[in-house]
Design brief:
The complex is a heterodimer of chains A (about 260) and B (about 230).
Chain A (H helix, E strand, L loop, with lengths): L5 E9 L5 E10 L4 E5 L6 H8 L11 E8 L2 E2 L5 H7 E4 L3 H4 L5 H11 L4 H14 L15 H13 L5 E5 L7 H14 L2 E5 L3 H7 L2 E6 L2 E7 H6 L1 H6 L10 H11 L6
Chain B lengths: L1 H6 L12 H4 L2 H17 L6 H16 L4 H6 L5 H13 L4 E4 L2 E4 H27 L2 H10 L4 H30 L10 H28 L14
Antiparallel strand pairs in B: 1-2
Helix pairs in contact in B: 3-7, 3-8, 4-7, 6-7, 8-9, 9-10
The chains are: A alpha/beta (about 260), B mainly alpha (about 230).
């Protein structure tokens, strides 16, 4: 098989205060896959995400860690950090943390500018990223004057502007109203990017990701097709994962299959 | 008061318009304001005629910018601490005494207080006029053009970006306190105000850390050095 975009092997990590969050995680994500990372609170999901672009771990030099992370075959080390951060685009949960510049345009420019882009090349990147998330008319607005859903889309644009190989989203559907949640799903499908999505929103995982991984107590507890993972009641219950009331994955999958496409709901 | 501040969703100080003063390059306006304030402050104590000239300049600028004088007057409240200090001066200064409204006050103190009030008012008015005619982004761009060091401009940019987020946090904390029977007027509850401010500080600090991680994730080089500045 080809080199995976994301290759995590035996990753263990303890925070400087001694709290160990990861106990040997193995995870591979290949080009074009959309993978949901599920798990109860405190399972180490955010810790894992912060290892994927070297914010935590051996490359950052804080805490104690073992194991390796490689992006398209390139190990994450101090020397490769700038390249790693271009290839792995992380969208954080709270857009107010991610959007720190005075206007949407400045914010989207922040990443590419750090990559050394200037002038027309920079402008093209910004315009393309904003167009992909449908936020072009808002380029000159301050982020805090946008709705929450719009801010989340801009947060995705700030990362798209760096043309990442994999998009990592932390709880993308949280705090969105149902319409904004659906629009975001359509947008993510249209992006046609390799995706790793941390979420508690299990129907969202089923809708968007063909494959799901359960992270529990710092190890990968399950890895398989989303429908099978969500359908395994014993597995789900043992990791504190619960489907919303009235949601039947098998039924939803059948009706989605007869509908064929997500865009026509 | 907090909710009013937050309710003013747009800028507290900027008065949007299209006057020549609004359109003037921001770095000129900054230089003009600073020069004006220096001239005001450098006016020797005891000479009062230049103040009429200063006021005329401000009045003309306000007229050109088409800003209602009441708009500026209301925002003069920031000057209150200076006024309180100036009001003390005639009583605590030494020297020749004169009688004013039946009170024995120091002549020197009276002059000093008058000069202080005039200078502070003119300085604050000039700053308010700059803020009213210049959007915060233009102001930052102007400071950059004036070669203010990048990190300083960045810090001001963060302040502009997060002031509303933090005021929003504050308003939510206040609502949750009031919802549980908190009365801001009762001195018994004042310790709670101090505790909430402490909590707000911790929240803002943690947000700062999350923002920093988000910056690093988009390729920001954390150490200050050649080529590390995002601008």
């Amino acid at each position: 098989m080809s080199t995976p975009i994301l290759d995590v092997r035996g990753l263990a990590y303890a925070y400087p205060d001694g709290h160990q969050a990861l106990f040997g995680v193995d995870l591979h994500v290949h080009q074009g896959e959309r993978v949901a990372l599920l798990g109860p609170n405190g399972a180490g999901k955010t810790t894992l995400v912060l290892h994927l672009n070297g914010i935590l771990g051996a490359a950052a030099g804080s805490g104690s860690s073992a194991g390796t992370v490689a992006i398209s075959g390139m190990p994450v080390t101090r020397a490769t950090l700038p390249d790693v951060r271009r290839r792995v685009g992380v969208v954080f949960q709270d857009p107010d943390d991610q959007l720190f510049m005075p206007t949407v345009r400045d914010d989207v420019a922040f990443g590419p500018r750090n990559l050394g882009l200037r002038g027309d090349a920079l402008t093209d990147r910004i315009d393309a990223a904003l167009a992909k998330v449908g936020m072009t008319p808002y380029a000159d607005r301050p982020p805090h004057h946008l709705s929450f859903g719009q801010r989340r889309r801009v947060a995705i644009a700030t990362v798209l502007a760096m043309e990442p190989e994999i998009l990592v989203l932390d709880e993308p559907s949280s705090n969105l109203d149902p319409a904004a949640r659906r629009e975001l799903a359509e947008l993510l499908v249209e992006l046609d990017l390799t995706l790793l999505m941390v979420t508690h929103d299990l129907p969202y995982a089923l809708q968007l990701c063909e494959r799901s991984v359960i992270l529990s107590d710092g190890v990968i507890a399950a890895d398989g097709p989303t429908l099978e993972v969500l359908g395994d009641q014993a597995l789900m219950a043992s990791h504190r994962l619960e489907l919303p009331f009235g949601f039947d994955p098998a039924h939803t999958a059948r009706s989605a299959h007869s509908d064929r496409s997500l865009g026509h709901q | 008061m907090w909710s009013e501040l937050v309710g003013a969703n747009h800028s507290l100080l900027h008065y949007s318009g299209h006057s020549p003063l609004h359109r003037a390059p921001s770095h000129w306006k900054i230089v003009a304001t600073v020069a004006f304030v220096i001239a005001v402050v450098a006016t020797p104590t005891g000479i009062f005629w230049p103040y009429a000239g200063y006021l005329a300049v401000l009045a003309a600028a306000t007229f050109i910018a088409r800003i209602p004088p009441a708009y500026l007057a209301r925002r003069l409240v920031v000057e209150v601490p200076v006024v309180v200090f100036a009001a003390w001066l005639p009583f605590i200064s030494t020297g020749e005494r004169v009688t004013l409204l039946g009170l024995s006050v120091s002549r020197e103190g009276l002059l000093a207080a008058g000069a202080l009030l005039a200078k502070a008012t003119l300085g604050v008015l000039a700053a308010l006029l700059l803020a009213a005619t210049t959007d915060i982004r233009d102001l930052l761009a102007g400071l950059t053009r004036l070669r203010l060091p990048g990190p300083l401009v960045e810090i001001m940019g963060f302040m502009a970006r997060y002031v509303e987020v933090i005021l929003g946090d504050l308003a939510r904390m206040r609502i949750s306190l009031v919802a549980r029977g908190f009365n801001p007027r009762s001195p018994r509850h004042w310790p709670v105000v101090a505790q909430s401010l402490g909590a707000l500080f911790v929240r803002s600090y943690e947000r700062g850390e999350r923002v920093h991680v988000a910056m690093l994730s988009r390729g920001y080089a954390s150490s200050f050095g050649p080529g590390s500045s995002p601008r």
